[in-house]
Design brief:
Length: 709
């Protein structure tokens, strides 16, 4: 023992040195384990009165993070997100809609999340508290000391047990008789660090290149689908389906960078219409069955409003001015845009667009059309001050100067926008009356005086013919039975008009239009597609108005997966098989009866001459029967191919107009049960979206990878 005692003393210095270096190495290793958390940006929206935090796309989150790092000590920076439809104010942490009115949304730079027992998804902590959690986590990892407890300003307790187990205890307002602490009551929340550790779908983002712009106009009421969602939400679904269809059917064009995406923007006219009239309706609405009466006031009355001279003018003014305003704003935010514009309408919205398009002037194009619409007076020298002086409204010059409204911008103003500027009702009416009179005077220019006026009865009985209004321009007389309105002019020429679940055919018939001339075309729009679900109770066909003497089926839209739905194939197969069995059975009975009668006649008559004559007659009778057996197949083939060969006029450039969707298998069980769903199904219909993409990109000479049958 004595010999061994000095040994530790001899090695103690080196041992201490080794221990120090060991702990340094451990500390360095522990410090190396800590990695900065990757932030992701979220925004909050109210869904059913509950806050729902939704992640930005990976592309937008990266843009926001770069901007955040660059503007920490500078003024507020505005970052466009979601394809340019929303702007994010970084300093204010607010997300604002660009093209339509929408409540602002809170934005967060998120690193830490929690999820309670009743929560469907993880919720981000506030940014300041997330920084505290991150600092505590870094200390725990660096020192390898866990079970650290943090308390938030609201007395909520977070315990970091280890990197994989972190919990959040909520405070309880009351304590029981046993004196339980808040951390001992209730089931704790789960805490996660970093967006990669929570279950959330983060989209990659949208292509930057915009190939085409489509305006979408809603129908009656503020809700557009069976879930009572707004036009903005429904168009979002339509856009998302479009983005999913592009890589599935235009993969080759995407790989060659020939296409980017199609932008869909909603046009809302319902809120403007109901801003003032709802107060008047409330006074005359009965108190009984309150919910049903308010539902009727919000929805069905829109049809009657459109047939009213006063509100019809308000509706068409709102739709046209909104499409013009959004188009100019879109060009301002996308100066490199070189694509075309199309329009789509659902239900009553399609009728509004049809009436607008039939009343467009086709004598001007391009910048000439744009300049004419923007001009409010024929005198180019008239300024905004001159106009207000003429209307005896000089005291409002400062208001328009403050808002930077010149005479061109005044032509695009609606009643709601004038009201928002603080213009009282009387001056508002003067300005609107002035603008309408100017538009009316411009519409009268260049029109030839009528040589004779037909009687109203003769006009209703005779087939509607297009009339010439300019060089190469034909106008459809659809004003019979329609409320007169001064239809505004669009500052662009739409390439294609898509109508979903449209009552255009019914309204034209009720107005007395029983025939559309095959040579008629919309003045400024070359394409027209009438798309409908077979069980849609509001939809009507257009082609029978062009070709009233021929019965034929609408074009069946192919399934987006390249085949007919299985239940439709089975139904057609059973129908074809039953027809074949019926024809074969009838043919067999005829043959047997003829054989029986021929044998009886041969037994009575004698002689080879008579026998030869009867054989010749039997063969002559048998040959027509063989031809009749082949006729059903030939007839079915001809009926199947007939719609593609029929001439439906020039309303859609010589192509078919009516297109019917394939119903789903469950919808085939009861047509009446799914009638409402059939009218509201277009927003999430892949087949409808694919038709739009196919026709839009065909105008650019781009075809799908594999044409659908």
């Amino acid at each position: 023992m004595s010999a061994a005692e000095p040994q530790p003393a001899e090695i103690s210095p080196s041992s201490n040195s080794n221990s120090s270096s060991y702990y340094d190495a451990v500390e360095a290793e522990a410090a190396n384990k800590y990695e900065l958390v990757s932030p992701h940006w979220f925004y909050c929206k109210l869904v059913d009165s509950k806050e729902r935090w939704t992640p930005f796309s990976a592309q937008d989150s990266e843009k926001l993070e770069i901007a955040h790092q660059s503007c920490k000590h500078s003024q507020d920076l505005i970052v466009p997100t979601e394809g340019g439809r929303y702007d994010v104010h970084l300093t204010k942490r607010l997300r604002c809609a660009v093209y339509w009115e929408e409540a602002e949304s809170e934005v967060r730079r998120c690193t830490w999340f929690y999820k309670g027992e009743k929560d469907n998804r993880y919720i981000p902590y506030p940014e300041s508290f997330s920084e505290e959690l991150e600092d505590a986590y870094m200390i725990c990892v660096t020192l390898d000391e866990w079970k650290k407890k943090l308390e938030s300003p609201t007395r909520e307790v977070i315990i970091l047990h280890n990197p994989k187990l972190m919990v959040h205890y909520q405070p309880v307002a009351t304590t029981d008789d046993w004196g339980a602490t808040p951390t001992e009551q209730g089931r704790p929340r789960t805490v996660k660090r970093g967006v990669e550790n929570i279950s959330v779908d983060i989209p990659n983002g949208e292509p930057l290149q915009i190939d085409h712009l489509v305006f979408v106009v809603h129908g009656i009421g503020p809700a557009c689908d069976i879930r009572f969602r707004s036009i903005v939400q429904c168009v979002n679904d339509f856009r998302n389906v479009s983005l999913s269809m592009l890589p599935a059917h235009f993969k080759k064009a995407q790989e060659q960078q020939q296409i980017g995406r199609v932008e869909f923007l909603p046009v809302n006219w319902h809120s403007t219409l109901h801003t003032g009239v709802d107060v008047d309706l409330e006074r005359i609405t009965l108190p009984s069955i309150n919910r049903l009466r308010h539902f009727i006031n919000d929805t069905i009355l829109d049809v009657f409003f459109y047939n009213s001279a006063t509100y019809c003018q308000t509706i068409v003014d709102t739709v046209a001015s909104e499409m013009n305003r959004i188009y100019l704003l879109f060009l301002e935010r996308n100066p490199d845009f070189q694509g075309g514009v199309s329009i789509a309408g659902h239900s009553l919205g399609s009728l509004i667009l049809f009436d607008l398009l039939t009343n467009q002037k086709c004598t001007l194009d391009g910048e000439e059309r744009k300049n004419e619409i923007l001009a409010t007076t024929p005198e180019e020298s008239k300024s905004m001050k001159d106009i207000l002086t003429e209307l005896e409204l000089s005291e409002y010059c400062s208001v328009f100067e403050k808002e930077e409204v010149d005479r061109q911008a005044l032509a695009l103003c609606t009643e709601k926008e004038l009201k928002d500027m603080g213009i009282p009702l009387g001056p508002r009416m003067k300005i609107l009356h002035y603008l309408r009179n100017k538009n009316s005077n411009k519409n009268l220019k260049g029109q030839k005086p009528a040589a004779s006026v037909e009687s109203e009865d003769a006009k209703q009985e005779a087939p509607v013919k297009p009339t010439n209004t300019g060089t190469g321009c034909r106008r459809l007389d659809v004003m019979t039975g329609q409320v007169h309105a001064n239809y505004p002019q669009l500052i662009y020429e739409p390439q294609i008009f898509f109508a979903f679940g449209s009552p255009i055919g019914m309204f034209l018939t009720v107005r007395g239009v029983n025939r559309i001339d095959p040579d008629y075309r919309l003045p400024t729009c070359k394409g027209f597609f009438n798309v409908f679900h077979p069980f849609d109770p509001v939809a009507y066909r257009i082609e029978p108005l062009v070709v009233p003497d021929v019965e034929f089926e609408p074009m069946l839209l192919p399934h987006h997966k390249g085949r007919k739905r299985m239940h439709l194939e089975l139904k057609e197969g059973l129908t074809r098989m039953s027809m074949d069995l019926k024809n074969n059975l009838l043919g067999s009975l005829r043959t047997a009866w003829q054989s029986f009668t021929r044998t009886s006649m041969l037994a009575v008559e004698a002689g080879t001459t008579g026998e030869t004559e009867h054989e010749t007659e039997a063969e002559a009778e048998a040959s027509p029967e063989k031809q009749n057996e082949e006729k059903p197949e030939e007839a079915s083939t001809s009926v199947k191919e007939e719609p593609t060969l029929i001439n439906v006029g020039m309303l859609n450039g010589g192509h078919r107009i009516d297109y019917v969707l394939q119903e789903k298998p469950i919808e085939s069980f009861n047509e009446y049960l799914f009638a409402l769903q059939g009218h509201l199904c277009y927003w999430e219909s892949e087949d409808t979206v694919l038709l739009l993409l196919k026709e839009i990109y065909q105008t650019k000479g781009i075809s799908m990878d594999q044409p659908l049958p």
